């Protein structure tokens, strides 16, 4: 009965673009590579499209079959029949920015599964619910209302999605040794449940490094921990200072620096951990933390190099607008490159990948080199940035092929209207359009070209036949060797 009381109706899924990554990514969903897992994702996406009127021109007749009632039933099926479990089990999500992003409904799905998991089911889903119940019952001196249990569970699911190992959470099998106690400990740090921390800290001090549910205790403390919790947890000072700086927590950084009476930076060598600490603390979105760190660094100029240029590239990569603006005002060099596997990546490159228009504008205003950046922005589907780069006279080399290969019809049209030749679209880009089943984009390309190369037509036709893309095969036959 208690489990039934905790059941919640299936929430409306937010919009999740089907190709939410560049199609060349091994993690991208493609309509031409449907299996029994991502077919369910495609159906759910189709249902959401019908609800939001966000009809995708490339899907053709598939949009017409979605009705309001059908959409609701699809969403109920996704949640009630656990249809996303296998997807999450097989997906290797990581915290690193360049790894595949989690679908935006991940926390909602996880919360629903936790609420409704039966005894004997997935151990970590049951553990999540158990931890939420303990926080609900034991936090404070008076009983809490049911709504507080819901808020605890929602918060813990959000933390699990943010820092946990999703593939492990949906993995069958028993818990590892001490995993339940470690999970409760990290959750208590997250929720600042001091009395639970007191009861658990002796078991884990110096031993609880990481947990499948909630990740690292140091990271959790650095982002969410309180000064009171620090006294109990006693995390590794070096680790939590630079991580707190990365999360922009100026008061926590000041507090942690003051925990040691004498840092004795005058005794440092370049290999000393304290030297590395002051290098890492300046990797922060907070201008206040940057300046606070620089106060320490200015006292020992013989030990520390000027890090403005490297910091600018990192700030652009992580989308830290205020820090980018501050570093540019300090005179940071926009053209510091990092050679990553043959690709030269400067601050503008990262901003074009991420799609942060404000950072792109700041860098352009400071005369950043735009060579190759149009293709980068087009590849990642950032139409507004493409328009900004056009206004600044950036070169368009490979941009239209990248846009076509990604199915970004608006960018293709923008580039064509700007005067980019349709003949710059590579044959491989045409093949990608076929694989995406983007009928509208294919029509646009052929219309603007006034026909196409017979060899490219034959290659596309072979791909359509091989992949069983009947609609594209019919369209290709209709156009013929124009």
Quick overview:
With 482 residues, the protein is mostly helical. It has helices at 2-5, 38-52, 68-80, 85-90, 106-116, 123-138, 146-163, 166-169, 179-191, 194-204, 217-224, 227-233, 237-246, 250-258, 273-281, 287-298, 308-318, 321-329, 347-354, 357-365, 373-379, 383-391, 399-405, 409-418, 427-436, 439-449, 454-467, 470-479, and strands at residues 210-211, 215-216, 338-340, 343-345. Among the domains are: 2-247, no CATH class; 402-482, Serine Threonine Protein Phosphatase 5, Tetratricopeptide repeat, CATH 1.25.40.
Commentary on this structure:
With 482 residues, the chain is mostly helical. Among the domains are: 2-247, no CATH class; 402-482, Serine Threonine Protein Phosphatase 5, Tetratricopeptide repeat (Alpha Horseshoe), CATH 1.25.40. It has 28 helices and four strands. Strands 1-2 form a two-stranded antiparallel sheet. Strands 3-4 form a two-stranded antiparallel sheet. Helix 13 (237-246) packs antiparallel against helix 14, helix 21 runs parallel beside helix 23 and helix 23 packs antiparallel against helix 24 (409-418). Mean pLDDT is 78; it is low at 1-7, 12-42, 44-67 and 140-147.
The helical percent reads 55-70%
Strand content: under 5%
- Extract low-pLDDT stretches: 1-7, 12-42, 44-67, 140-147
- Principal-axes geometry comes out as flat
Largest sheet: 2 strands, antiparallel
Strands across the major sheet, in which order?
1-2
Number of strands: 4
Quote the distance from N terminus to C terminus.
Answer: 68 Å
Structural class: mainly alpha
Mean pLDDT: 78
Counting H and I runs of at least 4 residues, what is the number of helices? 28
What gyration radius follows from the Cα positions, in whole Å? 26 Å
């Amino acid at each position: 009965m208690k489990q039934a009381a905790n059941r919640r109706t299936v929430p409306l899924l937010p919009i999740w673009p089907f190709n939410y990554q560049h199609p060349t990514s091994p993690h991208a969903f493609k309509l031409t590579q449907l299996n029994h897992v991502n077919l369910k994702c495609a159906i759910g996406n189709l249902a959401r499209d019908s609800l939001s009127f966000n009809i995708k021109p490339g899907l053709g007749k598939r949009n017409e079959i979605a009705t309001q009632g059908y959409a609701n039933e699809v969403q109920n099926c996704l949640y009630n029949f656990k249809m996303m479990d296998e997807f999450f089990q097989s997906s290797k999500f990581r915290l690193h920015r360049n790894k595949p992003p989690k679908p935006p409904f991940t926390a909602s799905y996880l919360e629903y599964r936790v609420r409704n998991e039966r005894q004997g089911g997935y151990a970590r889903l049951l553990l999540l619910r158990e931890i939420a119940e303990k926080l609900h019952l034991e936090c404070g001196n008076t009983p809490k209302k049911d709504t507080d249990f819901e808020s605890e569970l929602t918060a813990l699911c959000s933390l699990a999605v943010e820092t946990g190992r999703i593939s492990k959470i949906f993995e069958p099998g028993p818990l590892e040794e001490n995993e339940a106690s470690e999970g409760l400990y990290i959750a208590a740090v997250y929720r600042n449940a001091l009395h639970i921390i007191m009861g658990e800290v002796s078991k884990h001090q110096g031993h609880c490094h990481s947990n499948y549910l909630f990740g690292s205790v140091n990271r959790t403390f650095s982002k969410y921990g309180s000064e009171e919790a620090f006294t109990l947890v006693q995390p590794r000072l070096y680790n939590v200072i630079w991580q707190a700086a990365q999360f922009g927590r100026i008061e926590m950084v000041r507090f942690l620096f003051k925990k040691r009476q004498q840092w004795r930076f005058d005794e440092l060598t370049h290999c000393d951990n304290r030297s590395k600490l002051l290098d890492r603390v300046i990797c922060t979105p907070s201008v206040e933390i940057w300046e606070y760190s620089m106060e320490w660094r200015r006292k020992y100029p013989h030990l520390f190099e000027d890090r403005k240029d490297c910091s600018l590239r990192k700030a652009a990569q992580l989308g830290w607008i205020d820090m980018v603006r501050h570093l540019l005002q300090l005179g940071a060099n926009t053209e510091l490159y990092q050679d990553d596997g043959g690709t030269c990546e400067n601050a503008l490159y990262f901003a074009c990948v991420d799609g942060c228009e404000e950072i792109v504008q700041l860098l352009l205003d400071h005369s950043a080199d735009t060579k190759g950046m149009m293709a980068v922005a087009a590849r990642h589907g950032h139409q507004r940035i493409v328009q900004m780069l056009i206004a600044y006279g950036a070169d368009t080399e490979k941009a239209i092929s990248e846009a076509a290969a990604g199915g970004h019809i608006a960018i293709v049209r923008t580039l064509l209207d700007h005067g980019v030749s349709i003949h710059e679209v590579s044959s491989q880009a045409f093949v990608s359009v076929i694989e995406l089943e983007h009928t509208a984009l294919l029509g646009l390309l052929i219309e603007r070209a006034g026909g196409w190369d017979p060899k490219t037509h034959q290659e596309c036709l072979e791909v359509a036949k091989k992949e069983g893309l009947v609609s594209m095969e019919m369209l290709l036959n209709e156009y013929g060797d124009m």
